[in-house]
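BUG: 3D viewer hangs when loading the predicted structure for this chain

Environment: internal workstation, default settings.
Expected: structure renders.
Actual: progress bar stalls at 90%.

Input used:
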Amino acid sequence: MNESNLAMLGGIVDKLALIKAQIADLKLTETQLKQDLIDSGFASIDGTLNRAAISECDGKTSVDWKKIAEKFSPSRQLVTANTTVGDPFFTVRVSAR
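Structure tokens produced before the viewer hung:
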């Protein structure tokens, strides 16, 4: 890889970091706006072009099947026979220098 390609990729890194920062700011704004609507106490609110419906939902129920299975002391062979591994994938992490 030559220096000009590396410089171009450096620009892509900086652009990606900027977009991720913008997304983080937008998510924070989204959270604040949603909380304002929740705090209003109304079940629905009409805007000029849109309507928001506010509903209280039950919390998510999760069962820790791993802990339950461990109580039965399965053999290493049984665990290995019933274990799958997903396909490899790429990940990109961006951090400030």
